[in-house]
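Figure 6 in text form: structure in, sequence out.
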């Protein structure tokens, strides 16, 4: 049986089976079968289209606070200084940066996950649209900043050990294998072995009280791989709450205060 005949046969059979108890005529049933098939086909197309886009993944809304536990004022952030908070899980660190300049949104297709899913990125928030946040888990082999050691961080200016004279400035640099990400372009990969941008963390800025709330991620999440790779380490560092969702508030610290040994390379 040719493919189309076979498909028609299966559609008709399933519609007849469904219609028999209703008493519909054979032609009404065939017509219903075609309608059902069209709807199924549209649904499948629509599912496929969605799969090709990386959409924001909403987690709980988490207010960013200073180290005293008071709501962090966006204006208190120093430009081009590396801050850390945790979101969406207790053990998953995020870079928070005031890039000191307006950061425009990027249209869809500028950024893609390793799986090829395209996404638009909303750019900076805050009064000057200069505030951005990205997961601090390197998209190459999941290196991340801990309280003891950090191989990945934002570098104001050029990296200390820039491999080429035209190495980019003001990038997030991972010293493990020298992946570089541009936080002004949605953490797009500028060089190195990483295959996708750092996952973005979306922020809401409340202009009235100048506070920041994290509410979603966007892009290639690596949390499952991260928890799998570091399960034993995280259970010692963070304990049983490592994979617990951050509840309501997350403390923002300068990387230099959060980590004892921020490695520069
Ligand atoms: S783990 Fe970051 S570049 Fe390899």
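Output sequence:
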């Amino acid at each position: 049986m040719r493919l189309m005949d076979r498909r028609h046969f299966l559609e008709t059979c399933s519609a007849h089976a469904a219609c028999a108890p209703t008493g519909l005529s054979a032609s009404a049933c065939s017509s219903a079968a075609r309608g059902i098939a069209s709807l199924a086909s549209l649904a499948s197309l629509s599912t496929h289209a969605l799969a090709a886009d990386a959409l924001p993944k909403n987690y709980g809304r988490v207010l960013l606070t200073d180290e005293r536990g008071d709501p962090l004022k966006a204006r208190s952030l120093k430009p081009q200084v590396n801050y850390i908070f945790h979101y969406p899980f207790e053990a998953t660190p995020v870079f928070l940066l005031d890039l000191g300049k307006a950061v425009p949104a990027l249209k869809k297709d500028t950024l893609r996950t390793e799986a090829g899913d395209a996404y638009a990125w909303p750019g900076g928030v805050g009064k000057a649209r200069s505030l951005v946040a990205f997961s601090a888990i390197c998209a190459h082999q999941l290196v991340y900043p801990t309280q003891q050691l950090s191989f990945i961080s934002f570098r104001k200016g050029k990296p200390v050990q820039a491999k080429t004279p035209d190495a980019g400035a003001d990038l997030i640099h991972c010293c493990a294998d020298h992946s570089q990400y541009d936080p002004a372009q949605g953490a797009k990969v500028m060089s190195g072995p990483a295959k996708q941008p750092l996952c973005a963390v979306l922020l809401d800025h409340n202009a009235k009280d100048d506070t920041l709330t994290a509410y979603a991620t966007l892009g290639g999440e690596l949390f499952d791989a991260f928890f799998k790779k570091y399960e034993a380490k995280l259970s010692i560092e963070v304990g049983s709450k490592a994979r617990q969702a951050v509840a309501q508030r997350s403390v923002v610290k300068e990387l230099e205060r959060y980590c004892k040994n921020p490695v520069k390379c």
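Caption detail: Residues 3-51 form one domain.
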